[in-house]
Amino acid sequence: MKNLSDYPHRQKIESYAEKYDLRLPERQQTMLMGELSGKRTGSSIEYQDRKDYVPGDDVRHIDWRAYARNDKLTIKLYREEICPTVDIIVDTSLSMAVTDAKAIRRMDLTYLFYLLSFKLHATVSMYSLANRLERIGNPFDLIQSDDHAQDDPIPLLQRSPLSKKSGIKILISDLLFPFDPAQLLATFAAADRVIIIQVLSLFEDEPDFGGEVRLQDAENGRFMDIRLDRPTLEGYKKRLNNIRNDLDRRMKATSNAFCCVRDEDALDVVMKKLYAASVVEA
Amino acid sequence: MVFSNPWGLLALISIPIIVGLHFFHSQRQVRRVGGLHLWEFAQIRIPAGRRLDRFTRSLPLLFQLLAALLASLLLAGFDIPIQSSNRHYTIILDDSISMLAGTNESSAARAVDLLSGIGSETDRFTLLTAGLRPQIIAGPFCEKSEMEAASQQWQPRDPNCDIEAAVNLASKFIASSDKILFLTDDEAPARRYTETLEIAAVGEPDDNIAIDYADRMRVSPEKDRIFVTLQTYSKLEQSAHLYGKIAGQDVFTKSITLQPGTPLSLHVDIPYLTQTVTLSTEPDALSADNTAILPPVLIKPVNVAFHALGAEQVPIAKAVRSTGYTEIVDDPEHANLVFSSDPNYPASPSNYRVCVLPAIDSQPNKNVHLAQGRDIVFDHNSPITESLPLEGVLWPLRELSAPPNSHPLLTWHNIPLLWVESQGRENARIGINLLHDRTNIFQQATWPILISALVEDCRMAIPGLSKTNYRVGEPVHIRLRPDVRDERIQILRHDDVFETYQPLPNVIPDLPLGHYTLALSSGDPLAEFSVNLFAPGESDLRTLQSNTPQVSNLVPASIRQTERNRFLYFSLLILLILFTAASWIYQDISH
């Protein structure tokens, strides 16, 4: 896929972007004073609710009229206004194009999150992550750019300014490199919400019996001979699920979101998975 | 070239197929994945180095190729035969029925005993019987156990022994200088083959009374007559009894006195028209010739009809009436034999024979010739004309050609007088080129003989047995009626199933002594007949000799024998299994 015309899902993704919204974080630290109403109370003029005063509340929001009526101190609550920033980090290593479907699925997700971010009036930044972390202008730059071999992307992320930025971080990758989930999450410790989307080919997600095969690492071309028998398949799935479950558990504990999609899943299945993982909301 | 065997060549094709599959297999199985770290636990360990890697990867292929090659060799019949030298005995057994003679022990039993002392387990044998036709009953070049088993089952059954035919057959298994051992009870007939035969006579001379001949005729609608000829083969006058039995019950007994060298013929009339009569005399040295079984007389009446005949019908009808078991009927369609002057007479399936005489036309002298008896050529092999007297016969004829596919029986200067056209399996049309208004044949003996021959020819064509009493060795002609011809037919011998056929052949040769019944598989009987001995030459036991040579001194022929190399065969087989197993085991170990 080297031309925009080769990308088959553009219209479908745009229609999904109209139906869904990116789910916002429960708390924001550095997204205030924007055009978008947040879920928390804030300092906008839009009245939201009232509550009993407790020490520490801002005395400027005490409702003195209510105090005059019933001798009870209450606080007026106003909806906060936010201005989110979204950073979309797309894995552009060679492994993300082991199949054409996987490359297209990466493009689908990138374009979807790009559109959903704009729907939030967010400040969107996009990065390609391969042998280095580079900023790209829009999702379609991915189509014309070449993929590169990647060794270990986490040090690149740790060294980049992204690690110190707040806002929403969306990582689209197959995560098929050796990594520690805790270390990966620590990289985005300053973020308000982290969304990690794992994109796998069908064989990478659910390999089937197939006798002897020779596997080739897409990143470095190294070969490995294996036999796709029951013990091998069970061992592989166990290792893959261990990493997924660990990452998922940690993500949920910090109100972040993790979702895994296959390259051959239909788009509506992908959207259902994203919805189920609280990545998007209707 | 071992791979000239098509199976071997076919198996050889498996080698390029295996190589092709191997490369196809290895090329197809490369999968690109995002990373290998999750698979490392399952990596197939390869010891070291690229060259060793290739070699060890090729080992299962090498084993498979070797296994395929060995399988091809085995299928192609690859062999390095083992040559060995063995002694070979060629033995002929006298299969004539006199070998069954003997007071205490038969000659056949003595011959079998003698056989067991010949040669050793490592020798090879070819065992033949000399009867009406020679037969190999063990071998050629069989082991001793097989020869002994065959000799134990052997039972002499033929009415004579054709030594020459047996020697001719046995000579195919020996070198020109080797000798054949001939076991017989009568040395004399074999003496002229002493250059080829080593004769061992195992007979014992004895007195014997035999039924030389017996038959049964229908002499009136209520009575059958049995003709019997008996003879004693001894130097002295002998008294005996002839018993006639039906179903084991005596129906008559005759006391007889037999003079040496003089056959005694007698006849007995019996009223039992539908029952089988068994004739017997007292047991003696040879029991096979003491019995004759006579089934009921077979009568096949012939229905005769006339169609479009003129004055010639009278002499024809007269001659027909003079022939036994005929009946003149009015409806030609249901007749077996039809005389007609219409050359286009439409024969029905019941008309087994249609005889067509020419009609007398208005130009009596045109193309007419007169044949006389001495100028008429006749077919000696046809039962119609073989005994036809033609002397003094004036046979006027019209000049004509025989129809295509016809067989002439009488001709005069290549003009056919009498001919047969076959029409179907047993129906035929007989043409008679006879101008009956100016011949003298009706006043000659030739005419009733000719008509009688035509009637008998028709009778033979009617389905069923032609007779019920056969000699041993005489072929039994059987023509079944059309509706059962394709059925499964059993031949019962003394009420036991002897043979089963589907369909039954027209001729059954070499039936042994006995009483036979033809029956459908459902058990419905179709016909019965008997096979009796009636072989006076076999009944004369006075000339039998005993002249047993020391068979241990026999010098057998030495033969070079090639045998399949079983060691090589099993070695290849074991290697095939090992290579196949190694291919699998190596793949498993490498994983």
Walk me through the structure:
The complex is a heterodimer of chains A (282) and B (591). With 282 residues, chain A is α/β, with parallel strands linked by helices. Chain A is built from 9 helices and 12 strands. Chain A has helices at 10-19, 64-70, 100-119, 141-144, 153-159, 181-187, 202-205, 230-253, 267-276, and strands spanning 21-22, 32-52, 74-82, 85-91, 123-129, 133-136, 168-173, 193-200, 211-217, 223-228, 257-262, 280-281. Chain A has a 6-stranded mixed sheet with strand order 6-5-4-7-8-11. The longest helix of chain A has 24 residues, at 230-253. The radius of gyration of chain A is 22 Å and the shape is elongated. Residues 29-33 of chain A have low confidence and may be disordered. Chain B has 591 residues and is an alpha/beta fold. In chain B, strands 15-14-16-17-23-22-21-19 form an 8-stranded mixed sheet, with helices on one face. In chain B, strands 2, 3, 4, 5, 6, 31 and 32 form a 7-stranded mixed sheet that branches. In chain B, strands 24-30-29-26-27 form a 5-stranded mixed sheet, with no helix packed on it. The radius of gyration of chain B is 37 Å and the shape is extended. The mean pLDDT of chain B is 85. Classes of the chains: A alpha/beta (282), B alpha/beta (591). The interface between A and B is medium-sized, with 33 and 20 residues.
Q: How big is the Rg of chain A?
A: 22 Å
Overall mean pLDDT of chain A stands at 82
The percentage helix of chain A is: 25-40%
Count of helical stretches of chain A: 9
**Portion in beta strands of chain A:** 25-35%
How far apart are the first and last residues' alpha carbons of chain A, in Å? 31 Å
